[in-house]
Amino acid sequence: MHPDNPQPRTILQVAESIRQDALVAYPTDSCYALGCRLGSRDGMERIRSIRQLDDRHHFTLVCQDFAQLGQFVRVDKDVFRAVKASTPGSYTFILPATKEVPRMLQHPKKKTVGVRIPDHVVTQALLAELGEPLLSSTLLLPGEDEPMTQGWEIKDRLDHVLDAVVDSGDCGTEPTTVIDFSGGEAEIVRRGAGDTTRFE
């Protein structure tokens, strides 16, 4: 798929398959991710299985824009400013979930969820077509230090467990910077592609 001018028909096909419970690998502004429909229990379990995650893992809702993000997490005034200034970009924010977030996606104790707004043309086109966030997790396989960066390599290794790979070329190996705001203050959980200066 063209990285700057994604073909509308292909975007539509991918969105339709996601609506029908497909699990896809797709590019973002910080590396490839696994994504499925927001309410897909099957997709979520498949992501857990591929990445060997436990139930304390924070899934991420990849949102199209700030208005959509605001439906799924509670953001106070100070946090609002910090998040707004950093989006779209290579950040994941952990925030208290609203009632719009299915319970199975929330951290079992904290009732939080990860959210992000990627700065990637293909992802944005897909989110616009879907009209809702993608339930996502970085495509980092167990025991590996770096995510896979090539669509063909992902298809080669994971074709048997994925329904589709959206290939728009290399998108880097560095995952997002993760900032946890659930305690009120910014806590840097993972240093990644996003600059952490404003959260220090």
TrEMBL record:
Coiled coil: none annotated. Residues 8-194 form the YrdC-like domain. GO terms for molecular function: double-stranded RNA binding. Gene3D superfamilies: DHBP synthase. PROSITE patterns: YRDC. PANTHER family: DHBP SYNTHASE RIBB-LIKE ALPHA/BETA DOMAIN-CONTAINING PROTEIN, THREONYLCARBAMOYL-AMP SYNTHASE. This is Threonylcarbamoyl-AMP synthase. It comes from Streptomyces actuosus.
